[in-house]
Amino acid sequence: MTITVNQQTIELFEGAQVRHALLRYFVLNNLDKSEIDRVEILDKYGHVLDLDAPLSNAQALCFDELRLAKKEEPAQDTEEDDDNPDNA
Hints:
Layout: E1 2-5, E2 8-11, H1 18-28, E3 41-43, E4 48-49, E5 60-62, H2 79-83
């Protein structure tokens, strides 16, 4: 089924819950998944939804993404750093 989260279309399995839609959205947008429990999810009418609420096809959800931090990317080592004696 197709769900819209913050105006982004997400494909989910039949029987999915709000939690599943958020998890998919967080992964696609590189957001910290530990924040899922902290967001307030609203439907298109402004009603607050529980994370365990069932979803139906073409349902639209939204939440305030500005309060969430992006997941930090791990630092990548470069060969130049390994050859530098100051880094030892």
